Amino acid sequence: MTTAPRSTGYAGTLALTALTPIVWGSTYAVTTEFLPPDRPLFTALLRALPAGLALLALTRVFPHGRWLGRAAILGLLNIGVFFPLLFLAAYRLPGGVAGVLTAVAPMFALGFAAVLLAEVPTRRKLLAGLIGVFGVALVVLRGNAELDLLGVLAGLAGAGSMAAGTVLTQKWGRPEGVGPLAMTGWQLTAGGLFILPLAVLLEGAPPAMDAQAVGGYLYIGVIGTALAYWLWFRGISRVPATSIAFLGLLSPVSAAVIGWIALGQALTVVQILGLGIALAGTMLGQIPAKTTAPTTVSRESDTDRAELVAAPKVPELAR
User: Fold this and answer.
1) Residue 10 has pLDDT above 60, yes or no
2) Labelling 26: which of 86, 202, 231, 315 has CA 20 to 30 A away?
């Protein structure tokens, strides 16, 4: 079904999808306050694999035919490759440089969309991407930030991996009768299975966990991953991938605000200015060009509506 992105449903989908990067912004606070330190691969594994297996058990829909390969590729790009590279960059790049590199993802998405979807990037979108990166830099960078070549390459590769996965998810869509909840389960499971041997080989046995750690892992697994990625992939099926990619700028903004409210971290005038600029870049990236051709998006099917009813209840966890 081809529709132009002008309806209230389009705006509602954007608003709902925007909850995903906002929730992702809470991951830093949860990780630093509740989870065992220095276990990035183990954390990535627990984010992906249990949530993926739970969604597979809930939907009981499995990939077959060419979708075995497609689900594996999307799972690698969106989860299996992205998570480890993101954590590697975060550990090797102090001062928020990793956050700036992640904010480059919309620019990568514009490039991939031009190649894979034949969407010519507009000057407005390019300007929005530059504004967003500049705003995020003001929020997260510090004067003593140091560059590490491996960390920079990991951050850029991670941003590119997520952008490519976002665009490919829209290009391939999903099989007839398969909703976004099942697709989320496929990708989380594929990505988690890729991370599993890396975590075992590089980090060894799981760390000891107390009640706080269990609660933290439940939060990032159920809310920060299963629910958040379901909203993300649902949005990709209905909104242009480049618009969805710009929503990722909300993640460092959310992390800064949560750090200020929940952790008592001070926000400087420059950071507050950066928050406003990053939000402006996000909003600018959502404005469609007047001459843009209608974008092909998936019509909400009976499967989608059934998944809304069957979506798992999310427990309220204390932070």
Assistant:
1) yes
2) 202
